[in-house]
Amino acid sequence: MPRIVTYNVHRCVGTDRRLDVARIAEVLARLEPDIVALQELDVGRRRTNHVDQAHEIAQRLAMTHHFHAAMRVEEERYGDAILTSLPERLVKAGPLPGYPRVPGLEPRGALWVEVGVGGRPLQVINTHLGLVPREQQIQAAHLAGAAWLENDALTWPAILLGDFNATAGSVVYRTLCAPLKPARKLAPRREPDATFPSALPVLRIDHLFVSPGVEVNAVFAPLDPLTRVASDHLPLVMDFELA
Predict the structure, then answer these.
(1) 3-state SS string over the chain?
(2) Whole-model pTM?
(3) What pLDDT score was predicted for residue 75?
């Protein structure tokens, strides 16, 4: 049964303030995923010792990866990645619109990779939305529109996942529930799935949305001594099958 994980890794700096890329890789290795969507990765940044975190985590997991830099400062990059041990191809990577009325907001983006699951193509879109509610709403509408979910190249089955910085009561959530379904509501049994903050998770702001053709078998956020400290988010895990 395939397993996909979305995980905001907080540039691999844990709640103990320790920079440890290997620790993030260990969290993921224990989960034995087939596909991984990561947010808040540093690539070549001075603050994290110039390490290509996307490449290093992928290498430790024996996976291929695609990285999209939502933000660039000269040679330094910061953004999101999709990793997998399955056949894959990059479809699209690009920015999400901001909210000009609030200057200085962090740029945001999305990354779309087609993954071969049991010989069938699965579309996987990873994203990390902003912190300002109106900004989030603009970005969610953009994802739901012609550039992404209504793109002519997008065929079901598909999974949209990532850190949306928004709860199930938000406009963002309702916007994305129009074309897709929240995976946690399709799971046969309810398991703990709050992801933030990792030390005492009470918020559900990391989500998985699925199209028809994706059968959800389980959704959960593993809470243990390692995941509590490795990042400020817990990973969110989904076991699924393609109908």
Answers:
(1) CCEEEEEECHHHECCCCCECHHHHHHHHHHHCCCEEEEEEEEECCHHHCCCEHHHHHHHHHCCEEEEEEEEEECCEEEEEEEEECCCEEEEEEEEECCCCCCCCCCCEEEEEEEEEECCEEEEEEEEECCCCHHHHHHHHHHHHCCCCCCCCCCCCCEEEEEECCCCCCCHHHHHHCCCCEEHHHHCCCCCCCCCECCCCCCECCEEEEECCCEEEEEEECCCCHHHHHHCCCCCEEEEEEEC
(2) 0.97
(3) 79
